[in-house]
Amino acid sequence: KQEVTQIPAALSVPEGENLVLNCSFTDSAIYNLQWFRQDPGKGLTSLLLIQSSQREQTSGRLNASLDKSSGRSTLYIAASQPGDSATYLCAVHTGTASKLTFGTGTRLQVTL
Amino acid sequence: KAGVTQTPRYLIKTRGQQVTLSCSPISGHRSVSWYQQTPGQGLQFLFEYFSETQRNKGNFPGRFSGRQFSNSRSEMNVSTLELGDSALYLCASSLAVMLGEQYFGPGTRLTVT
């Protein structure tokens, strides 16, 4: 059974700092890994999708890496801004359907 | 292109009632998945539909059911509501079944009193 863990559970950083969020998963036989952000009471916004054959994906200030063999992914956020404050979730796609297994998330606060 | 839409956005029901939630996927997407999000359990997979067929189901009781129509719109139904069914119900759509990026709707907040 796939299990996804995210560390840390919460993080507070001053504006402008670079930061790294971590995601680990127990079953390395994944099809892809997706990073999302969720604002309080809202739905999920897709940030990056990494296919199992890829090592990283970049979008603007975001960079996600994937090391499938060790069961790890990181989300790097450069030059953080208060608008980045949200909960960040990673999810892995395992199996023959579109089921995603989610981590518990990292709640990020970027302070002025 | 319009995103995933879910209706209603908020719903209050009493124990024992039933409820139907609706999800319209992104145009052209044929896969629709449903998730339940609670503070205690996080995001949990309910079921997934592709071309009107349920392809996968999570570990939820039979009170939770769903269906998909020929236009890919999907509904989920919860019968005999319990207090523990209070949650944010999220719908996601994707173009492909296995490798597609999942796009989520804003969710339906269900409160059971």
Name the features:
heterodimer; A: 112 residues; mainly beta; six-stranded mixed sheet; five-stranded antiparallel sheet; 0% helix; 57% strand; globular; B: 113 residues; seven-stranded mixed sheet; 11 strands
Word description of this protein:
- The complex is a heterodimer of chains A (112) and B (113).
- Chain A is 0% helix and 57% strand.
- Chain A contains no helices and eleven strands.
- Chain A has strands spanning 4-7, 10-14, 19-25, 32-38, 44-51, 56-59, 62-67, 72-77, 86-93, 100-102, 106-111.
- Chain A is globular.
- The mean pLDDT of chain A is 94.
- Chain B is built from no helices and eleven strands.
- In chain B, strands 2, 4, 5, 6, 9, 10 and 11 form a seven-stranded mixed sheet that branches.
- In chain B, a hairpin with a 2-residue loop joins strand 5 and strand 6.
- Chain A binds chain B through residues 31-32, 34, 36, 41-46, 49, 51, 89, 91, 93, 95-105, and chain B through 4, 6, 31, 33, 35, 42-43, 45, 48, 50, 55-56, 58, 88, 90, 92, 94, 97-107, 109.
Sequence-ordered SSE layout with sheet pairings:
The complex is a heterodimer of chains A (112) and B (113).
Chain A: E1 4-7, E2 10-14, E3 19-25, E4 32-38, E5 44-51, E6 56-59, E7 62-67, E8 72-77, E9 86-93, E10 100-102, E11 106-111
Parallel strand pairs in A: 2-11
Antiparallel strand pairs in A: 1-3, 3-8, 4-5, 4-9, 6-7, 7-8, 9-10, 9-11
Chain B: E1 5-7, E2 10-13, E3 19-24, E4 31-38, E5 42-50, E6 53-57, E7 64-68, E8 74-78, E9 87-94, E10 103-104, E11 108-112
Parallel strand pairs in B: 2-11
Antiparallel strand pairs in B: 1-3, 3-8, 4-5, 4-9, 5-6, 7-8, 9-10, 9-11
Kindly summarize this structure in a few lines:
The complex is a heterodimer of chains A (112) and B (113). With 112 residues, chain A is an all-beta fold.
Distance between the termini of chain B: 37 Å
How large is the count of helical segments of chain A?
Answer: 0
Average pLDDT metric of chain A? 94
* Class computed from helices, strands and strand pairing of chain A: mainly beta
Proportion of residues in extended strands of chain B: over 45%
Q: Which residues of chain B form runs of ≥5 with pLDDT under 50? A: none
Number of strands of chain A: 11
Helix-strand sequence of chain B? EEEEEEEEEEE
Radius of gyration of chain B: 13 Å
The percent range for strand residues of chain A is over 45%
Low-confidence stretches of chain A: none
Shape of chain A: globular
Rounded to the nearest angstrom, the radius of gyration of chain A is 13 Å
How far do the termini of chain A sit from each other?
Answer: 41 Å
